[in-house]
Amino acid sequence: LSLQVMLVGDSGVGKTCLLVRFKDGAFLAGSFISTVGIDFRRPHLLTSSSLLLFQMWDTAGQERFRSVTHAYYRDAHALLLLYDVTNKSSFDNIQAWLTEIHEYAQQDVVLMLLGNKADATHERVVKREDGEKLAKEFGVPFMETSAKSGLNVELAFMAIAKELKHRSMKTPNEPKFRLHEYVNKEMKSSGCCKS
Ligand SMILES: Nc1nc2c(ncn2[C@@H]2O[C@H](COP(=O)(O)OP(=O)(O)OP(=O)(O)O)[C@@H](O)[C@H]2O)c(=O)[nH]1
Known about the structure:
It contains 7 helices and 7 strands. The chain has 195 residues and is of the alpha/beta class.
């Protein structure tokens, strides 16, 4: 099963880093090299019952590459929409990203909202509750992630994979996979004080 997954969101929110963390288990520290146009990677994920091949499209967040990325939305099975919890405008732009997604992506595209850089406690300006609220408003699953610490990275990709796998099987007797419930159950809190 080959799944086309696209990472979208403002420039600098950590799309490339999240993908590298998932693929190689490493964090790209230091200088920030902005993605030009679109970057293709092919990691795979082993679930309990099968090997899932991901085709990952790491898109450029910069405005000047938007027309390039629009062309790819149509083929995406899933979209990971990222904002940066240390950057308010990346959060404020989520609505605009959602409008764009509705315009260009397939109607049944699997969508998940991710608040990245959850490790950056001191620089945080967007509260987790704000992310949760926005996600609820738009009916999309949400979690905070960190490409730096690895928080929820595997889980985000695994949740997407499970959802897509269930959709592709189309076996009527199989209980429906509930992405929201799975995410809520499995999600690790990034907060210090939640029990
Ligand atoms: N603290 C922290 N920094 C991060 C995290 N993820 C990414 N960064 C930093 O944020 C900067 C931008 O990361 P990228 O992954 O290149 O951002 P991008 O979204 O791919 O940007 P474009 O390619 O321009 O769209 C880099 O300096 C990273 O080191 C994270 O989870 N925590």
